[in-house]
Design brief:
9 helices, flat, 2 domains, alpha/beta, 46% helix, 300 residues, Four Helix Bundle (Hemerythrin (Met), subunit A), four-stranded mixed β-sheet, Ribosomal Protein L15, Chain: K, domain 2
Amino acid sequence: MSPTPGLMHGRLGLAASRIPYADRHGLLYLEYGRLSVEDGTLRFVAAESETLAAGDYAIPYQSVSMLLLGPGTSLTQDVLRLCARHGTLIAAVGEGGVKSYTAPPMGQGRSDVARIHAQRWADPKLRLETARRLYAWRFGRVLPYRDIETLRGIEGARMKESYQLIAQRFGVQWHGRRYDRQNPHMADLPNQAINHAATFVEAAADIAVAAVGALPPLGFIHEDSSNAFTLDVADLYRVEVTLPMAFSAVQAIQQKRSTQPIEREVRQRAARLFRTEKLIPRMIDRIKELFDVDDRGGDA
């Protein structure tokens, strides 16, 4: 893509093939550049990066629901003013969305998810049914049990098996899940990798939860945490995304006999995977499906 002044081609007036998350949700990822306001529109002066060619671009903010500002970005106060006026969310994130540094407030027109979320959490029957739905997605079938502790026990047994099977797939020796919160670096390499991978997937879930205006503290499976619902969402991808990403990173480190820190190996893999697999938009779709929100023709 050769950058030219003015609007870029693509669904949102942008080159979707070059800018991650420029999809129907209106999520736009920017990195290594300066964002400002010129002639009433957003202007992004970009340096060369993996996701965007160097150039001077105009961004039609009216079609963007949330700006994700990656490494190397700066912005002017006018950007905050313009986006606040038009209900466009802004979040500072790590490369590819592997970290979430801000929790933006809900934008305009995003109360539907929050209201449904609160109603389902406040009703014990609906709360359990929502938890069962989350477990059904994770297990691939609806379990007949209606006791949350029983479901958690089944989940624990399934996860032990998943750790072992995925470790075998990548040829990694597995001695069980061990994690000391007071001394996380003392864990063996596979456990360190899982810790990092889980942190990155939770960051993606943070962004998705913020984008739809859901309520992070109101979890259906997790409890007593300020981001309990974020953890509910992240756990949907633990077997599919988190564990394969962690064990593949360990495999790569061991095969290359690399001295690269495991955190960096996992982070690089996460950034690539989040882009190619469109993980954050998929999480947004899942959250809306969970709450039966019909967003056809709507925004994030």
